[in-house]
């Protein structure tokens, strides 16, 4: 491969690189930005990979109009994790070391081969708000709840090489990645330059695409394999080009843009595809806006949503405090490799979608899905339709009332334009005497301390605090459902009157039951609109025509407090500088005193504590041997859950509160945990006993086997009373009965939550039959040895006439099988036979499935060496 290595010099320092121009330059020039990065990856790893030369040819000869058929390997430069998915990943790595030892291998073989960086951001909850000491109080509670988990992560940092933990109270993983961790171009051993590529255990890893880094979310199990040197295998994706034109109008935000794009691309259909932006409109989109768009790739369904490197990228790297040497390397390397945005590009795409920035209007999304965009002027009428024919009052707590107004999530807190806009809305509202309604829980959770610094410097933080938006933590908080408790009086009124209340948040997801159990309607909005809705107190108010309030007999409208773009830009220009970024991360990256004082376990093998309810040795590798389990038939299987469309990983494995009367709550109480110390499902992901019991436990899940119920309920037989899904699974397990799950379209949409596959596997589910799958969840099922099957086009449980109480058979399949035949036998003896597609898409996925899962495959390979 030395024929492909070239070099360049920057200020007397020489870098080597794998030169794409040494290949067929005409073919390289027409490749999308993403595929050039994949080509470099294949070229650089070809010496160590037997499939390398084939991968190079596959990518070079990519036909944008043909259906995907050829598999390639992709070896990311690094892996990024957050603590909800990162803790179970480290638990798995620790358990894998035990398994390797039991099979007479070397435990040190289980070790990250490339940088793995874990940012603790998912654990902080909004227990305290609306006061200057809310941050300190929430941090104290966070450490009290999570000490055991944090000690375990500190052990992992010491026990594994190439594994770094960014302490709590630093920021949100994707914003930290964008502002601090992202390299754009790596330089190995200070001489070999190559693109910064990554996979992450969070679906919003795509945010880093905003600065030209190729990366996306994967399940924890796939990330663990990547950490151990296993390439990611994939069919070379189609690439949808988004041609960006024009510029945003006055009063329109990047949030309005991303919610519009989410609706457009979800309707178009980009699941499993790459999305790439190009066009003159990029001249009017700074990196902060680009990152907002890239962040929501999971919501519009694409694997990634990437922007090429250009002058805007360089300006952002300089502004965010990257070294002069690093910035020069990024610019020179990207120009040498054809990764720099050019106006006369020869790139060809599978298809092109037009995006005219000047046509974007103010909007929200909701009340249940991010792709359901609503023009601002239509929100009140949508809510009225959702509520139905009920008497409504807006001057007191009632249906439509906003219970939670949260400036949250890296989607928006990484963007100074919308954050400064929120501060200015608060400032103008304060000057006019407006206040939020007393039933609204307000909070501000910046994605990094940089935000705090420029809000302080600009004088806008006190304005937000006066409006009730005090800083409550540096983490995901409300965006992932860690909204904390409502005021007890408010909660009682909502429950007693069965109110259909709302939340408004600057997050990226608003699925049912996600934000708070007592909030039915969740709306995504820009930070300035979050402040406005806190003042309005109701989503039944039309903010475009009705006053937010009346002070001294004068009506005050949204336009009266909305800032101009010049006001916003003036503040940004005079307050934000590189030193702000450098100082923010210098101060926080080492952790506070509580983090530094944690007592940390020692040793390369973790000493499991039998009585722990947070960290427990998982059963995946119990009695594992070098012999493959093989692919067996499914016989007399029963349906555990019969589900509809758009069942999210939140529905399958919730991250939020643990109900004391649920199977997981009962388990914790039986193990001496008091109700106040339950914490959340997300924080308990290191304990499989809790997570099994929490599978399908979302309070908004609707299982058609138990009509009239909501939550984790099912029936053993049609005439039986409902029982919990966990109890039913245990009953079926006692009889050695195989289980399946049947679902509709978009099964497994949402978070990259590997516990949505782990939990299903541990309940005894052998296969899922769905009309379609979200990419990451399908991969996770295979990674846990669960067979993903897909109805043929036009088929569904309903069209076939299944009621879910049949028994199901499927003959053995082989690695060459594309389809399988399922036989459903009803109680009266009628048999319905129908064909399904086997959604194991690549040869490597078949290998994983044959081994019983990806981690079993990795262990056997390492021991065999």
Give a description of the structure.
The chain is of the alpha/beta class. It has four domains: 2-68, no CATH class; 78-359, 2-Layer Sandwich (Aconitase, domain 3), CATH 3.30.499; 363-576, Aconitase, domain 3, CATH 3.30.499; 634-864, Aconitase, domain 4. 35% of the residues lie in helices and 17% in strands. It contains 32 helices and 32 strands. The protein has a seven-stranded mixed barrel. Strands 6-5-4-9-10 form a five-stranded parallel β-sheet, sandwiched between helices. Strands 14-13-12-15 form a four-stranded parallel β-sheet, with helices on one face. Helix 4 (83-102) crosses helix 7 (220-227) and helix 28 (755-762) crosses helix 29 (775-783).
Q: How would you summarize the topology of this molecule?
A:
Layout: E1 5-10, E2 13-18, H1 25-30, H2 33-45, H3 52-60, E3 71-74, E4 78-82, H4 83-102, E5 116-119, H5 134-159, E6 163-166, H6 173-181, E7 185-188, E8 192-195, E9 197-200, E10 214-217, H7 220-227, E11 232-235, E12 239-245, H8 254-268, E13 274-278, H9 287-295, H10 297-300, E14 304-306, H11 311-319, H12 324-336, E15 351-356, E16 363-365, E17 373-375, H13 379-387, E18 402-407, H14 410-413, H15 416-432, E19 441-444, H16 449-458, H17 461-466, H18 488-497, E20 501-505, E21 519-524, H19 527-536, E22 549-551, E23 554-556, H20 558-561, H21 565-575, H22 578-588, H23 593-596, E24 634-642, H24 649-652, H25 663-670, H26 688-694, E25 713-714, E26 723-724, H27 725-734, E27 739-742, H28 755-762, E28 765-770, H29 775-783, E29 787-791, H30 797-800, E30 807-810, E31 819-825, E32 831-838, H31 843-850, H32 854-864
Parallel strand pairs: 4-5, 4-9, 5-6, 9-10, 12-13, 12-15, 13-14, 18-19, 18-20, 20-21, 24-27, 27-28, 28-29
Antiparallel strand pairs: 1-2, 3-11, 7-8, 16-17, 22-23, 24-30, 25-26, 29-32, 30-31, 31-32
């Amino acid at each position: 491969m030395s024929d492909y290595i070239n070099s360049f010099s920057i200020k007397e320092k020489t870098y080597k690189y794998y030169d794409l121009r040494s290949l067929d330059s005409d073919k390289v020039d027409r490749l999308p930005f993403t595929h050039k990065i994949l080509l470099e990856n294949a070229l650089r790893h070809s010496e160590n990979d037997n499939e390398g030369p084939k991968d190079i040819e596959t990518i070079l000869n990519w036909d944008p109009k043909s259906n995907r058929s050829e598999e390639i390997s992709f070896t990311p430069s690094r892996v990024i994790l957050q603590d909800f998915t990162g803790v179970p990943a480290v638990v798995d790595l620790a358990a894998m070391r035990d398994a390797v030892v039991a099979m007479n291998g070397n435990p040190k073989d289980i070790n990250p081969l490339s940088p793995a960086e874990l940012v603790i951001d998912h654990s902080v909850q909004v227990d305290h708000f609306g006061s200057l000491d809310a941050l300190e109080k929430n941090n104290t509670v966070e450490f009290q709840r999570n000490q055991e988990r944090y000690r375990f992560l500190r052990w992992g940092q010491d026990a594994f090489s190439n594994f770094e933990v960014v302490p709590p109270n630093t920021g949100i993983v994707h914003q930290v990645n964008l502002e601090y961790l992202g390299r754009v171009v790596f330089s190995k051993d200070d001489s070999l330059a190559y693109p910064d590529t990554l996979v992450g255990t969070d679906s919003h890893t795509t945010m880093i695409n905003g600065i030209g880094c190729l990366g996306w979310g994967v399940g924890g199990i796939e990330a663990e394999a990547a950490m151990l040197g296993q390439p990611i295998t994939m069919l070379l994706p189609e690439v949808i080009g988004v041609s960006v034109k024009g510029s945003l109008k006055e009063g329109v935000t990047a949030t309005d843009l991303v919610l519009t794009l989410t609706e457009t691309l979800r309707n178009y259909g980009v699941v499993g595809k790459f999305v790439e932006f190009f066009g003159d409109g990029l001249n009017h989109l700074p990196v902060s806006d680009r990152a907002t768009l890239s962040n929501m790739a999971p919501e519009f369904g694409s694997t990634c949503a990437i922007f090429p490197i250009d002058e805007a990228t360089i300006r952002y790297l300089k502004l965010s405090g990257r070294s002069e040497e690093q910035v020069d390397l990024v610019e020179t390397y990207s120009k040498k490799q054809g990764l720099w945005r050019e106006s006369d590009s020869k790139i060809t795409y599978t298809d092109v979608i037009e995006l005219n920035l000047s046509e974007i209007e103010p909007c929200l999304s909701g009340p249940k899905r991010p792709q359901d965009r609503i023009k601002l002027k239509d929100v009140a009428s949508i809510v009225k339709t959702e509520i139905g024919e009920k008497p409504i009052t807006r001057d007191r707590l009632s249906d439509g009332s906003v219970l939670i107004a949260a400036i949250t999530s890296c989607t928006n807190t990484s963007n100074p334009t919308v954050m400064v806009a929120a501060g200015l809305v608060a400032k103008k509202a304060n000057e006019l005497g407006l206040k939020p309604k007393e039933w609204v829980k307000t909070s501000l959770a910046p994605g990094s301390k940089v935000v705090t610094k420029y809000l302080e410097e600009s004088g806008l933080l006190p304005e937000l605090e006066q409006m009730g938006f005090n800083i409550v933590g540096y983490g995901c908080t409300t965006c992932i459902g860690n909204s904390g408790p409502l005021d007890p009086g408010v909660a009682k009124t909502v429950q007693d009157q069965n109110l259909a209340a709302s939340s408004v948040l600057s997050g990226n997801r608003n699925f049912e039951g996600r934000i708070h159990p007592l909030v039915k309607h969740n709306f995504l909005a820009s930070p300035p609109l979050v402040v406005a809705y806190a003042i309005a107190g109701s989503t039944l108010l039309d903010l475009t025509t009705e006053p937010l309030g009346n002070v001294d007999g004068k009506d005050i409208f949204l336009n009266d407090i909305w800032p101009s773009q010049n006001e916003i830009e003036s503040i940004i220009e005079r307050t934000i500088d590189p030193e702000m970024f450098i100082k923010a991360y210098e101060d926080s990256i080492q952790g506070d005193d509580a983090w530094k004082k944690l007592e940390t376990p020692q040793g390369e093998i973790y000493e499991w504590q039998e009585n722990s309810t947070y960290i427990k040795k998982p059963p995946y590798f119990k009695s594992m041997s070098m012999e493959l389990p093989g692919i067996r038939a499914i016989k007399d299987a029963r349906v555990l859950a019969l589900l509809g469309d758009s069942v999210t990983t939140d529905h399958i494995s919730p991250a939020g509160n643990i109900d004391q009367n649920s199977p997981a709550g009962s388990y914790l109480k039986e193990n001496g945990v008091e109700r106040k110390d339950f914490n959340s499902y997300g924080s308990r992901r290191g304990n499989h006993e809790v997570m099994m019991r929490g599978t399908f436990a979302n309070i908004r899940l609707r299982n058609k086997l138990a009509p009239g119920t909501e939550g984790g309920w099912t029936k053993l037989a049609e005439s039986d009373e409902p029982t919990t899904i966990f109890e039913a699974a245990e009953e079926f397990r006692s009889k050695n009965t195989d289980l399946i799950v049947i679902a509709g379209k978009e099964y497994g949409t949402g978070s990259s939550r590997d516990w949505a596959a782990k939990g299903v596997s541990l309940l005894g589910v052998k296969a899922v039959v769905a009309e379609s799958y979200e990419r990451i969840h399908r991969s996770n099922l295979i990674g846990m040895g669960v067979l993903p099957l897909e109805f043929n086009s036009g088929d569904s449980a309903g069209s076939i006439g299944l009621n879910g109480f049949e028994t199901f058979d499927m003959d053995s399949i082989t690695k060459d099988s594309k389809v399988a035949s399922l036989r459903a036998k009803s109680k009266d003896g009628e048999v319905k036979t129908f064909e399904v597609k086997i959604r194991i898409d690549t040869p490597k996925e078949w290998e994983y499935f044959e081994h019983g899962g990806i981690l079993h495959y990795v262990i056997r390979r390492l021991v065999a060496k």
